[in-house]
Amino acid sequence: MAESAAHMIAHGRVQGVGFRFFAREQASVYGVTGWVKNLYDGTVEIYVEGEKDVLKDFIERIRRGPIFGHVSELSVDWIEPTDKYTNFSIQF
């Protein structure tokens, strides 16, 4: 059972730079579950579940972004986990 969950919106140069694949890779590194997807307004939405301390580290890594990207703003809302995810996926 996940301890915590976060819903994020990443703004900046976050589409067309491998951001979703970067997020999936980082989720694997940190052992968290959830999903990531591009939004029509050019932002990227992320939902992630796991232990709170691990999520904080994951969020800081997402805030730095992939090498060719730039996160100008990352909004983070802490919410109750759903416990319905067993992996981290890219949604389309």
Q: How many helices? A: 2
Helix content: 25-40%
Domain tally: 1
Overall pLDDT confidence:
97
**3D shape:** globular
Q: Which class of secondary structure composition applies to the elements?
A: alpha+beta
Q: Got a strand count?
A: 5
| Rg over C-alpha atoms, rounded to the nearest angstrom | 12 Å
First-last Cα distance: 26 Å
The CATH class, by name, is Alpha Beta
Main β-sheet, spatial strand arrangement: 4-1-3-2-5
**Contiguous uncertain segments of 5+ residues:** none
Folded structure, characterized:
- Helix 1 runs antiparallel to helix 2.
- The chain has helices spanning 19-30, 52-64; strands spanning 4-13, 33-38, 44-50, 70-79, 88-90.
- The chain has a single domain (4-86), classed as Alpha-Beta Plaits (2-Layer Sandwich), CATH 3.30.70.
- Helix content is 27%, strand content 39%.
- It has a five-stranded mixed beta sheet with strand order 4-1-3-2-5, covered by helices on one side.
- The mean pLDDT is 97.
- A hairpin with a 5-residue loop joins strand 2 (33-38) and strand 3.
- The protein is an alpha+beta fold.
- The protein contains two helices and five strands.
State the main characteristics.
Alpha-Beta Plaits, 27% helix, single chain, alpha+beta, 92 residues, five-stranded mixed β-sheet
Summarize the structure.
This protein has two helices and five strands.
